[in-house]
Amino acid sequence: MKLRSCLYECKVMHHRLQPREHRFEYQLFYLALDLDEIDQVASQVWGFSRNRWNLYEFRDRDHLTLPDKADGSVKEHVLAWISQQGLDLPSDTRITFVTLPRVLGYIFNPVSFYFCEDQAGATQCVVVQVGNTFREMKPYLIREPERPGFFHLVTPKHFYVSPFSELDLAFDFRVRVPDEQMEIHIDDRKGDALVLLSALIGKRREFTTGRLAWLTLKFPFVTLKVIFLIHWQAFRLWWKGLPFHKKADNQNLQKDVYNPYLK
Predict the structure, then answer these.
(1) Which residues contact 256 (CB under 8 A, 6 or more apart)?
(2) Is the C-alpha dihedral spanning 228, 258, 115, 45 positive or negative?
(3) What pairs with residue 194 in β-bridges?
(4) CA–CA gap between residue 25 and residue 242 (Å, rounded)
(5) Which DSSP letter does residue 145 get?
(6) Which range has the worst mean pLDDT, 132-141, 143-152, 230-239, 244-253?
(7) Cβ count near 214 (within 10 Å)
(8) Are 25 and 13 in contact (CB under 8 A)?
(9) Rounded-to-integer distance, Cα 58 and Cα 50, Å
(10) How do strand 102-103 and strand 193-206 relate by DSSP bridges?
(11) Which long-range contacts (CB under 8 A, 24 or more apart) does 139-147 make?
């Protein structure tokens, strides 16, 4: 049976504008999983499994988990969290989750996306799940499309993402609903000034054993690659002399964080 879930072969771009210019790009791939068919994907695709060890794994506990609802699937937690924000979606809402996989038991996700569709296929809202190297995560809800297929939100970060970014910045999310192409921009703003530009641009690929094997050869150990590059670029920023902000500073600007490192 043909899957709704797919893969996206992507390019990631970061361009820091302030206080010093710094730009880099790299390539990787993302999973785009229909949360109602993860078990079906696991049964059809060799090398991928749910909640058990494999080359590529999806583990529900790696993602948004409400502290008072320890059990349950990712979909149940996401719908419950959205409800807590005052937006009630029916249980038959289709959610496509764009995320990095757990690779050889290791997981790290700088950013993931939940696209929530009604039964007619219209995307009702988007949840952006941002993570940091302290294993903290913070979800942001974009409640409704600015126009069909396009979501936009400017909101305070209130989250420690990088030691080279101030905490009083705002995220500027510009998200197109993925189809054959994926295009997502997440910029950092300080007032009206742009501080950092980020983009995730990708092309859809079918989620098959053959395609997953090809992307494995093309982008081996993809999640490990991401965490290595984050630390490498951090070293380069430190070498350029950018101001360093400690995690323990400005705790009042770190709000509504899941899995908090500093309690």
Answers:
(1) 138, 158
(2) positive
(3) 189
(4) 20
(5) -
(6) 244-253
(7) 15
(8) yes
(9) 5
(10) unpaired
(11) 139/64, 139/81, 139/258, 140/171, 140/173, 141/82, 141/85, 141/87, 142/173, 142/175, 143/85, 143/87
Q: Which residue is it, tokens 């696209």?
A: 115
CA of 214: how far to CAs of 9, 114, 188, 208, 209, in Å? 11, 26, 34, 10, 9
HSE-CB at 84 with a 13 A cutoff on CA atoms is: 15
Burial 31-62 (b: 16+ CB within 10 A, else e): bbbbbbbbeebbebbeebbbeeebbbbbbbeb
Q: Which of 53, 26, 27, 58 is nearest to 41 (CA)?
A: 58
Q: Which amino acid is at 162?
A: S
What would the two tokens of residue 189 be?
Answer: 């703003």
- Least confident range from 24-38, 61-75, 95-109, 220-234: namely 61-75
CB–CB of 5/32 below 8 Å?
yes
Judge if the upstream peptide bond of residue 243 is cis by omega within 30 degrees of 0. no
- Enumerate the domain spans of the chain: 6-253
Q: What distance in Å separates the CA atoms of residue 244 and residue 232, rounded to the nearest whole number?
A: 15
Which two structure tokens, joined as six digits, stand for 251? 């705790």
Q: What letter represents residue 262's amino acid?
A: L
Tokens of 125: 């809202």
pTM for this model (two decimals) = 0.96
Q: Which residue pairs, CB below 8 angstroms and at least 24 apart, start in 210-219?
A: 211/7, 212/7, 212/45, 212/46, 212/47, 212/48, 212/56, 213/47, 215/7, 215/9, 215/29, 216/47, 216/55, 218/9, 218/29, 219/27, 219/28, 219/29
Q: Is the pLDDT of residue 2 over 90?
A: no
